[in-house]
Design goal:
It is built from 15 helices and 28 strands. By secondary structure, it is an alpha+beta fold. Among the domains are: 121 residues, Sandwich (Immunoglobulin-like), CATH 2.60.40.10; 102 residues, Transcription Regulator spoIIAA, CATH 3.30.750; 81 residues, Sandwich (Immunoglobulin-like). The strands form 6 sheets. The chain has an 8-stranded parallel β-sheet with strand order 18-17-16-15-12-11-20-19. Strands 3, 4, 7, 8, 9 and 10 form a 6-stranded antiparallel β-sheet that branches. The longest helix is centred in the middle third of the chain and has 18 residues.
Amino acid sequence: MNLPAIRHVPLSEDAQVLGGGRFLFRLRTARGDVKASSITWGERFVRPGSSPDFSTQPLRRAGSDELFDIWEAEVETSFKRIRYYFTVEDASARLCFAAQEFHERIDPFAGPFFSLPYASERAVPGVPAWARTSVGYHVFPMTFASGIREVKDFGLEEVLKTRKWDPARTGGTLAGIAANLDYVCDLGVDLLYLNPVFTSGSYHKYNVTDYFSVDPCFGGDAALVDLVRKCHDRGIRVILDGIFNHSGADFFAFRDLVEKGAGSRYRDWFFPHSFPVVPADPANYETFAFNWKFPRLNTANPDVREYLLHVGTHWIEKAGIDGWRLDVADEVDSGFWREFRRAVRSVKPDAFLLMETWQDAHAWLSGDQLDSAMNYPLHRSLCRFFADRATDAEGFDREVWRLLTRYHRSVQEVQWNFLDGSDVPRFLAGARGDLRRLRLASVFLFTHVGIPVLYYGDELGVHGVAGREDRSLMPWEALGSERDLRSFFRRLISIRRAHEDALAGTYETVRADSGGGTYVYRRSGVGEELTVVLNNSDEVRREDLLGLVRPRATELLGDARLEDDNGHPFVTLPALSAAIFLVERESGGRDERAR
């Protein structure tokens, strides 16, 4: 047995308080090394004159990455103080693992034990309940709509070439988004994320000039208030882009610093290296990346904090927005985010706080700062497997499980999962325009753990390999020709709505081909389960699904042919296609297989 590979970290994602007397325990072992494992737990303290009261439950091998197997068990108990240990077995040995030690047996009185000192409900990260079942639609305002099913071209090609935008030439507006809410509603989404809308000298608005005004090119403050109201009337929540890591070079405080130098009252709002401060390349002050147009804000400064906290609450109070997507959040100090969370939640207790980071977000998602992260690591895995096909199903599954075990379960349930966005090339560019790959990847996206997000235009097949197709004009003229693709997304979203319980339940890998593209997984909830079969190959596949898909399963989506050969089920899938099967279980009760 490979003992150094065995790991459990108490008071971490390995020992989660789920609430309601439920706990998730996790153990890591070397891949393929351990054949069985279990957890034994009991009350942390023993009453004088009493015997220890212990229970034992098997752990299930839930998934694997390149090096390790992940074992999990969901435990229900009335105990709030728990001591526990694990038992692991291979072909020749059986050992107990507790307090980072191995023993042949554990003394029930003396231990050693792992310990969960007290199961406070506050240990569960408080993410908004509504976010767990949301489906997002991401809009870049300048290029989405200026009227019903139309958008003005503000000279996008020239802007991208010269990086100069003429405010007199406007494109999409907030009124344009409002005019097309019936289109958005028809897709079935209920969460709208808008890239920056505040006054700025650029078309993308990431260099903010005035945080307290909506850019006139979008219609001003009244247009935002009206859009949010109309969205709420249709059951759609709205989150805005908050740029608090840096401002624009025309921001009033930075202009004052440029004009007055070391004597500026706003000197400590930024990080000048020398004086005079010159807004030019190369910058003699800290910036986002190395762009002189984005002077970095000093969020440790009390005045800056007060100003930005006011921004955070102002638009909730004035426009009724439902939360923030926070740009470059991993470069802002954690103390600020703690204050930001308290301020925002004081005016809207269920406001959603989504961070941008392209890396592991663990440091910000423990329940005292932010709720969710844009899942760029999953995005990269989706592109590698479905678009580029640079990895096989087994490799993809390893990446999936590495991410599934990264955060607390409640945080995993609201991860922002996407194929496309305003800062990455369109998925179809990497897939060379093959809509089958887009459909295949989208089936995974909409049946996975987290919030699935559709980027505007994906439902109309936006793609390309040059320029900035990630922010291209919405191709409203394609509505007729891409009707089937749009219907496909509507169907996916309706399946997610109709089977929220299964898709909020456990995730289990059923099959992940080594060297191939067949990937099968199961989502299980109370009374029903969904089995998803993906054929990410160029060949028709006939898969033996004995024990995986019951003969009575109902196909919810796909072109699969399910055959019952004397009680032995087979499924035949065309190349680059997927199928979703619904299996209704006879008895209720939550499936205890660990996610």
